[in-house]
Amino acid sequence: MSHIALSASPSLVAFHRGAKQWSTLFPSNWRSSGTNPSLFANSNRKRLQLRFFASGKNGGNGGVVDEISETVKAHANFVWPDNKKPRVCILGGGFGGLYTALRLESLEWSEDNKPQIALVDQSDRFVFKPMLYELLSGEVDEWEIAPRFSDLLANTGVQFLKDRVKVLQPSDHLGVNGSNASTHGGTVHLESGLHIEYDWLVLALGAEAKLDVVPGATEFAIPFSTLEDARKVNNRLTILERKTFGKDYQISVAIVGCGYSGVELAATVAERLQNRGIVRAINVDTMICPTAPPGNREAALKVLSSRKVELLLGYFVNCIRKASESESSNTPKGLDFEKYILELQPAERGMQSKIIEADLVLWTVGSKPPLPHLEYSDVPFVIPLNARGQAETDETLRVKGHPRIFSLGDSSALRDSNGRILPATAQVAFQQADFTGWNLWAAINGRPLLPFRFQNLGEMMTLGRNDAAISPSFVDGLTLEGPVGHAARKIAYLMRLPTDEHRLKVGISWFTKSAIDSVSLLQSTLSKVC
């Protein structure tokens, strides 16, 4: 078990505890000159400002209840169990990061070269993002697609740290140590003040929703890319359903974007609301899922049409704003939720502008990697990034100019044989994680690294509780849709869950739910016949 040297940092650290915890977190003897040197890796004087936010019953809604400034003689360093063994730091616990860690654990290592692995993520749960839609439909439980890292890594040597990355400070690039055989790859600074010195670094930070491209989107639209997003959307829908229950009112949902995410979200929400609401999907392109196989697109169009989803194709959102009282005059009395106005502009000539009203705005367009923000303001960023903010890598997934840094998933810009950047999908990240794990093994053991080659196995999309579309790449022109596609998709994703133990638990849970649903359907059918 490794140790973390708690320390002061020049950054602001927020603790969601009462101010009385100060004496427990930093006892008076820590602030004396007699601090045990074995407790802290360094001894630099830093000024620490701590703002305590109330979360208890006396604290209200997160108001500031105290502010303390102290001088602490410590520097935050993560202490690895054995500095003689390779130290691998993985940033990001999504498909790329978690599966790289598990791949490293599964490989054969000599006792001297077996790496120590630290996995850092801002959440305490891994999220199987392709199945977030099933949380809205109630088809899956949260623990099934968002298990805790502590459970997944319980039987491994991987150490998990819940924290945010603040600064990258690599030292393996040319001009710093000038050698690929450097014994120190660099340092990662976390928001908590902790510093992790590493030999090898894996960048798998994913991407964040890009809302700042349209006025009002950040304030009034909800993205759909994280577990917190799914919870927020589900809660908002639940509130709308409860407040409008028994009233002559149609819940209006506007979804911006008609790529895979937007279409899957539109199909799921429309099925959930049924005749109690209307879903509008807006897309700047004149077709939905423009990069999807024709079979998937046609299956999606049929489902959206059957659920009366209104497609506003060839439009982009000019702005989103809160509706005024006069604009919300058609809202029945007693319904006090906010409404929003979306101003739409045509992407082509010959079309008229539109203004639509919505009770809920969901955003599925655009993403931005966090890498450009992980730098010192007074030091040029040394990791090469493309215009999208992704790290430029070679074919072995190593960052160009950085022999000790690998990058994968949404954080990397790797091109296929046709020169196109690989799509930011779970399938790509899953395959890259396998290669990254192997290439780390090869690099540590002085073996040749393998070039990554993406193999497109096909594309899948959910279209509701008992509906999906799958176009496997190995059978040209074949599309499985409806209940058959739904079952095939769930089996495929079950096999991709992170660990054998979790797959077994989820498989039993899904089988049990399916059996219960089948019995209920049979009883319902028999009662109608009788």
Automatic annotation (TrEMBL):
Keyword field: FAD, Flavoprotein, NADP, Oxidoreductase
Catalytic reaction list: demethylphylloquinone + NADPH + H(+) = demethylphylloquinol + NADP(+)
InterPro entries: FAD/NAD-bd_sf, FAD/NAD-binding_dom, NADH-Q_oxidoreductase
EC number(s) given by UniProt: 1.6.5.12
Superkingdom, taxonomy of origin: Eukaryota
Pfam families the record matches: Pyr_redox_2
GO molecular function term, any single one: oxidoreductase activity
Cofactor(s) essential for the protein: FAD
Residues of the FAD/NAD(P)-binding domain: 87-433
Recorded family membership: Belongs to the NADH dehydrogenase family.
Listed name of the protein: demethylphylloquinone reductase
Organism: Medicago truncatula (Barrel medic)
